[in-house]
Amino acid sequence: MRRFLAFALALLAAAAAAQERPNAALLIAKPELEDGNFSRTVLLVTQTESGETVGVILNRPTGRKHPRTHEVLYFGGPVMREVQIAVFRSADAPRAPAFHVLRDVYLSMHPRNIDALLSGDARNHRLYSGFAGWAPGQLEAEMERDSWYVLPASEALLFRDSTEGMWEELLEKARGGRTAAAPRMARLDQRARSRALRADRRIIPQPVMSKSSAARSPRESKSVY
After folding, report:
1. What is the pTM assigned to this prediction?
2. Does 2-214 carry CATH code 3.40.1740.10?
3. Terminus of the chain with fewer CB atoms < 10 Å: N or C?
């Protein structure tokens, strides 16, 4: 529990530093990814200054509703499942720490931000239970194993009314994009592709690989979270 709490506090501190610069991408699970937590998923992810990557699964509504507002809760990921996360629109920077993921769009687990959203009349947000997290090097290792497609995030996608069919749509887009829009990337070998992806940190978060982090199990390492 202390590790989880320390990790949450570190994320809040990182979010405070990340409010100025939008930094997000979509991860699209490849069909070969058999991890039950992430099979056929679409994730919104952002990266902290210290190299951790955090995000939420966009396309897994739970069927449960928030007891206060009765809005649908989404499964955000396997880390700290009891914690509420919000992705929300705001023309102004939130008063409490939040990740600035897109222009006027933020991600936060801070109770002050969550309470403000739940108390307001506008439904300008989406709520998640839990989140996904990678220590420095973990996501890069998965990219090396070719587990994910990467696409730019958009506000329209984050707040679309229904997430049904989202994975299939983006999977087709990612496959077509690799063939038509990025033939140079498709010709690169795995090592060269990794270097090219790391070069564009504004769109594709790529933590720095280390031998110690590569040995941890992806996304749920108790030694990290």
Report:
1. 0.72
2. yes
3. N
